[in-house]
Amino acid sequence: MYSPDLSLFVLDAGIKLLELERAELLYLSLSDLVQHAHGPGDAEADAFHSAVDARVGRLAELGAVVGLIADHGMNDKTNEDGTPRVVFLEEELNRHFGPDSVRVICPITDPFVKHHGALGSFVRIYLREKLELAEVMEVAAALPGIALVLDGKSAATRYQMPLDREGDFVAIGDTHTVIGSCRAEHDLAGLNGHRLRSHGGLSEQIVPFILSHPVSEAYREISENRRVRNFDIFDFALNGAQ
Question: What class has domain 76-202?
Answer without folding.
Answer: alpha beta
